[in-house]
Each structure stands twice: as structure tokens, then as C-alpha cells.
Amino acid sequence: MKKILLEKYKINPRAVAEAMWGTGGTNAVRTNRKGAYYYSCSAHGGYVVSPNALTEEEKALLNEYTKPLKIQALVQHRTDGDYVIGVSLTAIQRYVGRNRNFRYSPYKGLVEWQDIEFYAFEEDCDWAILEKLTDIKTLDKHSTCTPEKRKEIVDSTFEKWAKPRCVAPEV
């Protein structure tokens, strides 16, 4: 991985989706907001959303039903700034089981792991939380579903699956 300043680092949503939902045959579907992604992977799929794509109000609403997940970034504190020199997805890996080794020069600065948060909403039912509480949705040109029907499906899924559990357990 090429080093990148910590404040400029953005998660790789495809890698995150594949770590959570399987590799091979991954398809991306566009969404209506920058920083929000939808992937259909080999074993599952759903939304991967950067916290930067959400307003504080949206985060507060979402946090009532789910909590952000975390990946770990290996950060080196150098004289010219803090750099991400590696990323570990082991905290979220369900399908891609591989440990990573990172090489770095310790004389350039102290190294530590830092959590990077993101939100994930699986395609079965969690997607309804995101679509109900924000205006984020996929931009599927081939869908025959009317906006009214889609809202009905979102509301129904949210009421049946998301509302009863309220808060997701800590991971």
C-alpha cells in the first residue's frame, strides 16, 4: 500500500464489501450520494457508507438502530505528518481470511493502529434502515419499481426487521 496522509485516507469500499460478503463476482451499483456504495458480492451484499457522507443528524438517527463498524489503519507518525501505511480488515472479515504483514522503517516515526469507522447495511434487511432514515438509495436504471412502491417496501422492511431490534450489539 502506498502511504497516504491520515486526513486524506478513505476506506476502500469494495475491499470492505468483499471482506464482509465474499469475493468473486462483485458488482457495484451506483448510489445517489458520494461516499455511499452498494455492492453485490458472491455470498451477500449491501451498502458500505463512509461517515463523511452522512450529516451529524443522519449519524444520530442511524446510531439508534446500528453502530459503525471499524477497520484498523496502521499509522506512522512522521515529522511531515501522520501517514496510513497499511490497513487490516481482520475485524470485519467473514469470507477473506488472510493475515497481513506490514513492512515499515521504524526510524521514520512511531507506528500505531487506529480505528477507522464506516457503516454497513446488509441487503437482507439493514438496507431499509439507511434508506428510511436518509435519502441514500441505489440508482438502478433497470428497476421497474415505482418510487411509491419502493417507499412501501422500505417502510415494510424497516417496520418488520429494523424497528423491533432497535440497537445492534457491539462488535
Could you walk me through the main structural features you see in this protein, from its secondary elements to its overall organization?
This protein is of the alpha+beta class. Helices cover 23% and strands 27% of the residues. It has a seven-stranded antiparallel beta sheet with strand order 1-6-5-7-4-3-2. A hairpin with a 4-residue loop joins strand 3 and strand 4 (45-49). It starts with a strand and ends in a 9-residue tail after the last helix. The model has no long low-confidence stretch (mean pLDDT 88).
Helix content: 10-25%
Choose one word for the global shape: elongated
Beta percentage is 25-35%
Q: How many distinct domains?
A: 1
Q: What structural class results from the helix and strand content?
A: alpha+beta
Residue-averaged pLDDT, rounded? 88
Strand elements, count: 7
Reading the helices and strands in chain order gives EHEEEHEEEHH
The strand line-up of the biggest sheet is 1-6-5-7-4-3-2
Question: Helix count, per DSSP?
Answer: 4
Name the poorly predicted regions: none
C-alpha Rg, in Å? 18 Å
In this structure, how is the largest beta sheet organized? 7 strands, antiparallel
Distance between the termini: 26 Å
Q: Brief overview, please?
A:
The chain is of the alpha+beta class and 171 residues long. Helices cover 23% and strands 27% of the residues.
